[in-house]
Amino acid sequence: MAEERPGAWFGFGFCGFGQELGSGRGHQVHSPSPLRAGVDVCRVSASWSYTAFVTRGGCVELSGSVSGAAGGCRDAWASEELLLVLRAGPGPEALLQAWAPDSALRGEPLWAHNVVPEAEGEDDPGGEAQTGRLPLLPCARAYVSPRPPFYRPLAPELRARQLELGAEHALLLDEAGQVFSWGGGRHGQLGHGTLEAELEPRLLEALQGLTMAEVAAGGWHSVCVSETGDIYIWGWNESGQLALPTRNLAEDRETVAREATGLNEDGSQVKRTGRVEDGAPAPFIAVQPFPALLDLPLGSDAVKVSCGSRHTAVVTRTGELYTWGWGKYGQLGHKDTTSLDWPRRVEYFVDEQLQVKAVTCGPWNTYVYAVEKGKS
User: CB neighbours of 211 closer than 8 A, spacing ≥ 6?
Assistant: First the structure.
């Protein structure tokens, strides 16, 4: 029996459907709050109106607009259209089930598929807290989409390590650390320098020669973290989710005097205002179609990343959490509803002497796994 880890899960942001966000009441939680079942949870997958928790004992529990529970589970992935549950099968096989979220995991699933997983590593439910591996199937040769066709094979040459789905696009990280993207591109979220869609996975040429360790897909933006801890980010910046200057937030701060539209050399759409300290026009990035290198404060290295619909969360090598982007429901964890176009450290975990180990964002909320400093 695995030894109980000295950590817990925390939640903050939107909970208008009664999602489990710790002790928060009402429709939003502005600061990290411990989940009541946080010690036993090893994986979290959050959709807009509900959240799926996987416990170390292999139970999936639903909280929010739908409820229900089921045992014998390895993983779960929540979306408004489908709830995916990966169950242990006979021998090496696993059984993938797709349920209607409002089924409460009762009756029969919409469909089921047997998969043979590859050899499991150290990130199974009994070890390090994880944010889930679905919708990539354990065989790494297919994934599940919330829209038909649900089961989507991957090309044999794509040896996927991680796959993330945005609102209209997909990101794949392969075993060599290369990033591929496909799907809708109207907000630059594919990173190929255009706003065109891609029907098939296409290699991000701008990142060739760099080995990536993680990818994350927001609603219409994308982020990846390199093995050396660098952050690359691209796509839509409407709410500052790229940590680049955005017109909307500048207007909120009443700094815009006048505006003109231009185009960067790299093709990104720029909106300019007529007032900055040195008198030169200040660029506002609406869409960034190429990966941009982002520096965290104090030169911190990133190790984990997750994206909400329009916000971004990064865990550093030293266990600190930085968030930015849309903050209307408190999903940034800074005790307010302010949106930010720059990375800001979540002070709660510093004040409580906690080291952040994992983060997963729902569309409008954020879940974090943290341990006491000095413990692992």
Answer: 176, 177, 226, 227
